[in-house]
DNA sequence: TATTGTTATACTCTATAACTATA
DNA sequence: TATAGTTATAGAGTATAACAATA
């Protein structure tokens, strides 16, 4: 960071590593690492014209077939209105379908189509590969440790 | 995630842990954990009416006094146009100042004011505390491991 | 001609209030 | 009246092109 702070003669001496601030914060390191993996995945998914949120939605639907839009919103940690254009896109591309519920005609059950299931299988491999590529600096044991630590954090 | 997929009678049985997909991806765990720490920090900084990016900017300026706006943009991984409103806000609040460079009158040297230095000292403590609070599930050794692994990732 | 900072603009993501149709 | 989905809208954050002043 701040790679060229000495390009003006008014710039003072950069701080010593001992004074590092941002670099010692988990939140900062987490953000930098997350952005790197996110950008990497975005690049890989772009070949299928999909965004990470759409991939996540497909994965959640597969594991919870028939769930309602409100459930999907909670699972993706987004607000219900954001589900609408997301699902519309998946339906346009025939990857998922909304099915009116029999007992409560206000809600839909959401399911993957055959094409959605097939594409998701591909996407899982892409995401897994993207993970490894973006964390090439780690070995398998370190990846395991990292996943364990991160899971402990976000599971409260 | 997908906490209530069984609220409709059309919902099938949720997947077994063995079939977990998203939960096994580093990118997913990274995103969930990062969002948690980010939201926590946003809450803590709001008492000072500041955003994380403004805190980061103050920290970068402190460690690289006199740097130019283009340098700050690189350090924050944002585009030069985004630096303008950010710095304007810091100047309005008298936390930082732009000083015209003597040799090159196109550019500014950016410095913290005394008030900026004083506030930053407080903010560092807030950020450090926020880190610990949001990662209460980890002990100190685990935090150290995590920081080391994350740093390896984002430093390529 | 190239560079620093700036303006204007646009696109995405996110969040909220209000509407509809069912219940 | 309450709920599921939707619409409309507004606010951040982010990215690019183009401009003014200076080099």
Report on the architecture of this protein.
Two copies of one chain form a homodimer. With about 160 residues, chain A is mainly α. Chain A has a single domain (about 1-135), classed as Winged helix-like DNA-binding domain superfamily/Winged helix DNA-binding domain (Arc Repressor Mutant, subunit A). The first copy, chain A, has six helices and two strands, in the order ααααββαα. Chain A has a two-stranded antiparallel sheet. In chain A, strand 1 and strand 2 form a beta hairpin. Chain A binds a DNA duplex (23 and 23 nucleotides) through helix 4.
List the helices and strands and how they pair.
Two copies of one chain form a homodimer.
Chain A: H1 26-45, H2 52-63, H3 69-76, H4 80-92, E1 96-100, E2 108-112, H5 114-134, H6 140-154
Antiparallel strand pairs in A: 1-2
Helix pairs in contact in A: 1-5, 2-5, 3-4
Chain A binds a DNA duplex (23 and 23 nucleotides) through helix 4.
Sheet having the most strands of chain A: 2 strands, antiparallel
CATH architecture classification name of chain A: Orthogonal Bundle
Total domains of chain A:
1
CATH class of chain A, named Mainly Alpha
Shape type of chain A: elongated
Q: Which strand order spans the largest sheet of chain A, edge to edge or round the barrel? A: 1-2
Poorly predicted runs of 5 or more residues of chain A: 1-18
In short:
The structure is a homodimer of 156-residue chains. Chain A has 156 residues and is mainly α.
């Amino acid at each position: 960071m701040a790679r060229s702070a000495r390009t003006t003669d008014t710039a003072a001496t950069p701080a010593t590593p001992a004074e590092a601030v941002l670099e010692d914060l988990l939140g900062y390191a987490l953000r930098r690492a997350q952005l790197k993996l996110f950008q990497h995945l975005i690049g890989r998914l772009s070949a299928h014209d999909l965004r990470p949120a759409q991939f996540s939605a497909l994965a959640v639907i597969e594991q919870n077939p028939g769930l309602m839009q409100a459930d999907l919103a909670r699972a993706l940690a987004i607000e219900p209105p954001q589900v609408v254009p997301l699902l519309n896109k998946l339906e346009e591309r025939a990857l998922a379908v909304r099915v009116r519920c029999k007992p409560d005609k206000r809600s839909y059950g959401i399911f993957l189509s055959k094409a959605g299931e097939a594409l998701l299988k591909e996407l899982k491999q892409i995401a897994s590969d993207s993970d490894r590529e973006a964390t090439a600096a780690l070995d398998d044991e370190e990846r395991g440790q990292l996943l364990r630590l991160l899971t402990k954090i976000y599971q409260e």
